[in-house]
Amino acid sequence: MTKSFSVLAGTLISVVSFTSIAFSQPACVTQNMAVPPGANTTDKAGPFFIDTTGLDFKTAPPTRDPSNPNYPRATELPDGTLPPPGAEGNFIIGPTHNPAPETIAKEGVPRGTTKSFTLSSKESTIYNPGLIRDDAAGCTNSSIMTTVTAPDDKSHMIVTTSHPGVWSRTIDVYVPAQYVRGSEAPFIVVGDGGSNAYKDLAVTLDNLIAQRRVPPMIAIQIGNGGQDAQGSQRGREYDAVSGAYAQFVEREVLPLVEKNADVKLTRNPDGRATMGLSSSGVAAFTMAWFYPDLYHRVLAFSPTMVNQQWPHDPSLRGGAWEYHSAWTGPATPNLISKAGVLTPAEPPGLPLIVAAPTKPIRFWFFGGDQDLFYPNPTIPDGMHDWTLSNALMAKVLAEKGYHYQFLFVRNAKHVDRPTIAQTLPSALEWVWKGYPIP
């Protein structure tokens, strides 16, 4: 994975490709960003309903109205301002997004160092072999932009172009200047490592640590396994609603971090955080959800709380959508495995967060008013509206009494770079609230 690719990882995109020889190839299939053909937008009680309430389709993707009755009530802040430190609940910010001063290097502030190493699938147990999807040259995600879903299930994408392959990734480890060699340090695991979205992370940590607004922490950027979405290694890692990625990090990455960067990482879950963008954003939450004994603090930009899980899992047909909402398909029960046999779950289709006891997770996240909306035209499943999925997450988190802060962002697209530069320092400070600072 190159760093230029990782900037785009998490967003379903395509480009028009032409051969440089005598003739041109057909144009790539681009993002849909509109109601997919054949979608159900009229029968709310019918399967796979897509609710278009409050959407302005004059933009692509459509712009969402924060007063949409489907969204939780939120406090609208004056343009250019952010919630007070430590504030919880739902807020509306924008439309202006200037970078926070803490994202700019300052004279006299001690600077951390970054050490890097690579990891390949040949060295992995959990993700060996990896996944490779055969897309047309120059046409990102082409094979899933033209595929089909199962005849009786619009949430079940059929991907025939995915096969075993080899991946290699870079891992960058930021070590603050204040780290005392041999001591155990708090840390944050960052998915989609190398993304341009994180270009201010080291400077921001330098400044916040010097100001004693966050503890001196190790930041571990882990590159993804390559490509994007269904049938890819990145999608396999991030969109699966399981503990596999957390185990990959715990068993295969963190020991190498300690060895290569000469640091000791805390085993205290209150001193461990996760962060990500888009699909790595939902992976950050999934790590803490399945292993609250390992992680308590989560930060995510435009997390993919939608149905991207692949291969299709009959026990959780809606993937990450089922964190906050029931599967949108025909009203049949979800299935669970009992003694190796798929058995109807009780109660049927109850969302994961709603069904489980409240976990010790502190969660900060944002979604843009022009975030992704059904980017793939072949999957009209009622579970691919990123803005709605984030709003529904905020609803269930509030109902269950979680400590969270959700920002609905005006004038912001998917993984909006100006919004990240505006909010990263305050988000880090909010996520680490309550942790002792020496």
Query: Segments where pLDDT lies below 50 for 5+ residues?
Result: 1-25
Helix/strand/pairing class, anyone?
Answer: alpha/beta
Oligomer: single chain
Secondary-structure element sequence?
HEEEEEEHEEEEEEHEHHEEHEEEHEHEH
Biggest sheet record: 10 strands, mixed
Amino-to-carboxy terminus distance? 38 Å
- List the strand order in the largest sheet: 3-4-20-19-16-15-12-13-10-5
Q: How would you state the average pLDDT, rounded?
A: 92
| Total of DSSP H or I helical runs spanning 4+ residues | 9
Total strand count, please?
Answer: 20
Strand content: 15-25%
Q: Percentage of helical residues?
A: 10-25%
Coarse morphology: globular
Rg result: 21 Å
Protein name: Esterase
Pfam families: Esterase (PF00756)
Keywords: Signal
InterPro entries: AB_hydrolase_fold, Esterase-like, Mycobacterial_A85_antigen
